[in-house]
Design a protein that fits this description.
Length: 201
């Protein structure tokens, strides 16, 4: 009796699991169709009339969908993570600077001024120790790696955008331009962080 009950329970769990997985997969597939067809209206037209785009334009649209809705979103999440790491590193560097200031607060002011003058004289012309970013002193290995990989990946995405053929289609041209602008903005942020960490050389 108990064995039969457990067997039915296991079958029910298996059925529910399979149904859930199927529903999730169907929802994802439907969302991809809707996005590639230009919304609900485009999807209904696709179901009623078939694909309204020529094969070469459909290939370009699918490539842009993959870039915009999957690859670029993934890199945006990575950039958000990097921005948090940069802010934490900045805060840590400020805390360290304040501690050093407190430690040297009991020293002779004249001696401190003299030491600072010597330090400035030893700096290369046009460079000051005060102008160097705190992050360039001790960028964490994780931050350095993430920034380098992000920069490399964004360069690859920019090349992928350039390789998509618009074939004279106005919508494809517009989307290429919009995605390119988004990538450029992200690249500018990454380049700024690389410079701040002293990794732009």
């Amino acid at each position: 009796m108990n064995g039969s009950h457990y067997s039915r329970t296991a079958q029910s769990i298996t059925t529910i699991t399979i149904t859930t997985i199927t529903a999730v997969a169907a929802t994802y597939a439907l969302s991809k169709v809707i996005s590639s067809c230009g919304g609900i209206g485009g999807t209904l037209r696709y179901i009623w009339e078939g694909d309204h785009l020529p094969p070469h334009i459909r290939e370009a649209v699918d490539a842009l969908d993959d870039l915009e809705y999957i690859k670029l979103v993934k890199q945006k999440k990575k950039l958000d993570k990097v921005e948090i790491m940069v802010e934490v590193a900045r805060l840590n560097s400020v805390d360290d600077g304040e501690e050093e200031g407190c430690d040297s607060g009991d020293g002779n002011s004249a001696t401190m001024i003299t030491d600072e003058k010597h330090e400035m004289q030893n700096q290369p012309q046009g460079q000051s120790s005060k102008s160097k970013s705190p992050l360039s002193q001790t960028p964490t290995p994780a931050l350095s790696k993430d920034l380098s990989m992000l920069s490399y990946t964004l360069d690859k995405l920019a090349a992928e955008i350039d390789s998509v053929q618009s074939c004279g289609d106005a919508d494809v041209k517009r989307r290429k331009k919009e995605i390119s602008k988004a990538i450029v903005k992200m690249m500018e942020k990454v380049d700024g962080y690389l410079k701040e960490c002293g990794l732009d050389s």
